[in-house]
Amino acid sequence: MLSFGQLVYNEWLKMSKKRSFLIAYAAILICIAAVGYLIVATAGDEMPTVLEFTSIIMAKNGVGVIVTIIAIIFTAGVVSKEHQLGTIKFLLIRAHSRSEILASKYVTVLLFTCSLIIFSAIIAATGGFIVFDHAAGDHIWQKIAQAALYQFIYTGIYVTLTFMFGVITRSSGATIGIGMTAVLLEGILSMLLSGYDFSKYLLFMNTDLSIYASSGPPIEGMTFSFSSVVAAAYVLLFLAASFVTFKKRDIA
Amino acid sequence: MSAYQNQQHAVMQLRNVTKLISGKKIVDQLSFDVYPGEIVGLLGPNGAGKTTTIRMIVGLMDMSEGDVFIQGKSIRSDFTKAIRNIGAIIENPEFYPYMTGYDNLKQYQRMSEGVTEERLKTVTELVGLQDAMNKKVRAYSLGMRQRLGIAQALLHNPSLLILDEPTNGLDPAGIREMREYLKRIANEAGISILVSSHLLAEMELMCSRVVVIQEGKYVTHRTLGEPVLQEQNISISIRVDDLDRARKAAANVEQVEVVQMLVESNELVLSLMDEQIPQVVAKLGSEQVQIYRITETKQSLEDEFLKWTGGNRIA
Ligand SMILES: Nc1ncnc2c1ncn2[C@@H]1O[C@H](COP(=O)(O)OP(=O)(O)OP(=O)(O)O)[C@@H](O)[C@H]1O
Ligand SMILES: [Mg+2]
Description:
The structure holds 2 protein chains of 2 kinds.
Chain A: H1 2-16, H2 21-43, H3 50-58, H4 60-85, H5 88-91, H6 98-131, H7 140-169, H8 172-193, H9 224-248
Chain B: H1 3-9, E1 12-21, E2 24-34, E3 39-43, H2 50-57, E4 65-70, E5 73-74, H3 79-83, E6 86-89, H4 101-110, H5 117-126, H6 142-154, E7 160-164, H7 172-188, E8 192-197, H8 200-206, E9 209-214, E10 217-223, E11 234-240, H9 243-252, E12 257-262, E13 267-272, H10 277-286, E14 291-296, H11 301-309
Parallel strand pairs in B: 3-8, 3-9, 6-7, 7-8
Antiparallel strand pairs in B: 1-2, 1-4, 4-5, 9-10, 11-13, 11-14, 12-13
Helix pairs in contact in B: 5-6
Bound molecules: adenosine-5'-triphosphate and magnesium ion.
The site of magnesium ion has 3 residues of chain B, from helix 2.
């Protein structure tokens, strides 16, 4: 367990020592500032409270898509860059199984995703504290936590998809392309296909669990637990494909 | 030593290692052993399958057949236990360019148990990189990366070092230095070393044994530095004034074989035993043949190598 922690730490360092690492957080900061400015400029008398502002930011339509895209960009490199740099040779000749190495990489991208979401929440709350009214509404902390959790699940699904393509293609460029396309197509596909019943089994229809608390199911008959099960099945499938491919691959 | 004891003592045993890629045998039934403290050269022309063999030994590639045992542990079925005894560089050493040499080594320190900060310092000093440790690897020359590669390979105290063309990219001074510390590592620490190369002269200076392969197949192996046996024929060349008369005279001496006549340099190449040299000289003298020079013509390992591998043919 200790040694697995060391592997994760290694992966985290490989990611965080890149110059682009801080840009990820800077982009989120700018996004939140922009949303905050828009709210101030357009809200008039109806200014939201700190906590309302935070929960707006934490929603998929707040900073959600940008968090997902940043997570995709970093996830895409986590396996493929080792191949591209050739560092995979030194990485795989240590006393660790390939599964362990890949698992440490997966855990690291999930941690990174977490850090992006927590960072957004902290920035939104501090920013909001300076600008907006401090009055708290009912159960608002719980709402924020819930929004963050749904956001984590949404981003985590795309991260897993991207992770798989990174393992399979070994090219970070191609993987970023595939990951971003998936996010961008989601909206269009779920609109176009929502008329067909089979579409409820598609991944796109089940990534955003927050809709059950707000706008309701995209297709009649879908429930929160149905979406959870479908999403979990896809995630397991992606992981299985990643691990099988990574274990079997000849490093040439 | 009996065969059984050999098995007990070998640091590494290759057994019928075979690699099939799309129906082609890149490596074919390769078997050999490496013993403690030994420097073994894996020799073969370009494309012979040296790198492929090494990739299989360290588990980067799956074997189609056969197995490799490191300290008795199978690479196929007991990978983590077997691999912890190996330090390796496969083709060019590649590091994270945006990290310093030190941060790169720390990565590998964290991946092995019991590697102290002290040890990390020792290996960087051994390869002479102590002043470059805080530089980004991006700014390293190939020679510096090669050294960092060696440091990385030695970090966890392996009992077997595997180096694929380790002198690639080093300058003559660097090559000599590398050779010296590889020898030192083998002698003092008792670490076995397997080096691949297609440069024979290189191997002659460093290895105690070479295994020659071609087109993925075992060709032969040679122990280097063995004294030439007295009763063996040697070959000498004699420069004379009259090649024809000299040939006739020399051929008259018993058990002397005329191998070659080099017309341009007026040299006669003979194959004979040591004690016949005075007889040949006396005979030539009595026939009034003028002798200008007598030299031993050693068939170098290089010539042998080319003979084994059929010259420059690339598989
Ligand atoms: N992944 C692969 N797919 C198909 N053929 C391969 C693959 N890898 C290597 N080969 C072939 O296997 C043969 C041996 O290659 P290898 O790299 O092991 O040779 P080598 O002895 O290391 O040569 P060099 O001295 O040039 O480094 C070559 O003919 C090469 O073309
Ligand atoms: Mg090679």
